[in-house]
């Protein structure tokens, strides 16, 4: 994507991976596009009315969390123990306020819980049973864990546990959104079930501020997807912002540079990034990334494969 200034911009992703036209069924392709379109509509409705970037990214991610096509909320992958443990984070570029949760099991919208952590303000990252308890205490919508659990995800877990051929590169289905609002403020949000068969309380990059999620009005907002361990080591989301802020790199170039770094480190994945003039886009080193963009005065675009959008 090229850098073209816009008053407001919303970029979303639904994960990167080895998606190709041959590998995705027509139904999977159409279902994912419909989900991305609905998420763009929810977020851009807010931005069009003059709403804030932070409200827009939360609204877009909530739609994707409810959509079983993506590995977040309903449709999240299973841990080794057969539990859906959800991670999410969001960050407001105006103040660099941030909130995050990891390994929550009963909150319908982990991104809303991350927002509540941010607004509560005492902490930035809550995890596990404590985060579940905080969620209940503050009245975040609770669901039975069965709400998240889908048979196809269970099958993928069983296949991995049996040492079978589940394609690990297909597993990245994390969702995220970055936005620039009409006031020129940016925000980022990311939500995920993490990796299939994750063990021992593993936490990926998504809920780690600076790794999978970052937003700073002085630079840009970033949400990542992919091999979380490598994104953590690269401090990927912060690194993109640092390149923009300190080396004056265009947002799209900084995103591409950091994906090149991830590639050199042996990681696969993608990022979306947007700056305070609506500049930016996406970069990925996989064959596909579920993604979409809505900008003031432009038609929305959704795309999956490398050669689109
Ligand atoms: N980055 C996520 C994680 O490592 C996975 C993904 O993007 O799907 O938890």
From TrEMBL:
Entry GO MF terms: beta-aspartyl-peptidase activity
Per UniProt, the keywords (alphabetical) are:
Hydrolase
Catalytic class of the enzyme: hydrolase
User: Which Gene3D superfamilies does the entry link to?
Assistant: (Glycosyl)asparaginase (3.60.20.30)
Q: What is the lineage of its organism?
A: Bacteria, Pseudomonadati, Pseudomonadota, Alphaproteobacteria, Sphingomonadales
Q: What is this protein called?
A: Beta-aspartyl-peptidase (Threonine type)
Respond yes or no to whether keyword Hydrolase is given for this record. yes
Coiled coil as a keyword of this entry, yes or no, is no
Q: What is this enzyme's EC?
A: 3.4.19.5
Database matches in InterPro entries: Ntn_hydrolases_N (IPR029055), Peptidase_T2 (IPR000246)
Signal peptide range in chain numbering: none
Q: Which domain of life is it from?
A: Bacteria
